[in-house]
Amino acid sequence: MTTQTGPGLKNNGWFFRKHIQRAIDKAEAGHSRRPSSGNKGPEGARMNVKFQDVFTNQNDFERYEAQFHEEAARLKEAVRLQKMVYTARIREVRRRSRKLNILVVEDSSEARRLVCGILRNLELGLPVYPIEAENGRKALSVLGMRPVDVILADWRMPEMVGLEMLKEIREKKNLKDIPVIMLTAVAEKDEIIKSIQAGATEYLLKPFTIEDLQDKISSVLRLAESAKQGF
Q: In order of start, what are the domains of the chain with their CATH numbers?
């Protein structure tokens, strides 16, 4: 016997019983009526009682009801597994195309090119895509247009200094969690304290080595990942 499993039949016992009861009522009504003139003979009689064998007892009803729910559960599980497969594929594609966007905020074009060149060769687990900004104001403009994973910002710049830029970043809901590493050539304790109080994730003194830069970036990335996972 074929039971309806499409959108017209809800997956609950009450609706199923109501559906079957209607079929039984029709069968009984058809069986009690005499064959019409157009349905005389054995063939016509069979047409009038075509529903009479839908269910003959409670055991048949329970068996078919159980089969219905088993099929519904099987389809639900198949959909769930297929969704998991598609989700895993999407994550893998995103992982392969993922890059680290690192914003370098430095007023010296020569210093920017040098830092960007170093960044491209760092071993951070993902390819690095450096983005340049010559001052804090330009950096805020860039941050409003594209995602950034880490910011390397000089302390002293024209138009908007690094500390002012840092304060504005921490006040914006969509930017406040971006790790910021402050770069300074002045080893003054007061400046370092101010940068930390303003929300700097790390600081790095100039001149720095490639290893120093890689260690600092790796450190802030781990902190950011831990924060996302709630650790």
A: 13-95 (no CATH), 98-228 (3.40.50.2300)
Q: Which residues of 202-211 are buried (b: 16+ CB within 10 A; e: fewer)?
A: bbbeeeeeee
Write out the two tokens for 64: 């078919």
Cross-strand bridge partners of residue 225: none
> What residues have CB less than 8 Å from 192, skipping those under 6 apart?
184, 203
User: How far is the first Cα of the chain from the last one, in angstroms, to the nearest whole number?
Assistant: 56
Q: 59: which 2 tokens?
A: 């055991």
For 169, the token pair is 């970043």
Phi–psi pair at 201, nearest 5 degrees: -80, -40
Dist CA 131 CA 101 (whole Å): 7
- pLDDT tens digits, 171-190: 998 999 999 999 887 666 77
